[in-house]
Amino acid sequence: MKLLPSLARAGLFAALLLGTATLAQSADAPVTLKVGKFADVLKYVEANRGKVVVIDFWADYCVPCKKEFPNLVRLHRQRAADGLVCVSVSVDDPEDKDKALAFLTKQGAGFFNILLDEKYEVWQDHYTVAAVPMVVVYGKDGKLARTFSYDDPKNQFEYADVEKFIGTLLPKK
């Protein structure tokens, strides 16, 4: 009989964990911004193996980044239930964290948001790109599937291009 209260507590704990996971995927999830390293982003991708992960690299000073960012939020709201995980990576100076968080909050970015506290070269060299805006997509296998950047002036991207590509990796709606 003493086992029943323990099982009840374990069930309650599991329900709380599941509720938290569901909240993280909902449109009403709280907006937070972690200051961290690029390695944290890669760990997050690995932790979400089995899902498609979209990472949007942006900065407050980047007009095209801020113009396209609402599309990431919309994508999250529309496709999270289908196995899409959205991540935003701010490359702003850590001193500008409050400004970045205010932008994310205004956008309703209730998913994993991180502001990198290290040199640009770390992520630029990893993806072989020069600057933001940039969106990368990882497949369910955890491998980089596609990089969208403005590096080639003749090959600019829009979120419609990102969405079309993601559509090839997720179940049809």
UniProtKB/TrEMBL annotation:
Q: Please, which domain of life does this record's source organism belong to?
A: Bacteria
- Which UniProt key words apply to this protein? Redox-active center, Signal
- As given in the record, the signal peptide range reads 1-26
Q: Which residues form the Thioredoxin domain?
A: 16-171
Q: Which Pfam families match?
A: Thioredoxin_8 (PF13905)
Q: What is this protein called?
A: Thioredoxin domain-containing protein
Q: Which organism is it from?
A: Tuwongella immobilis
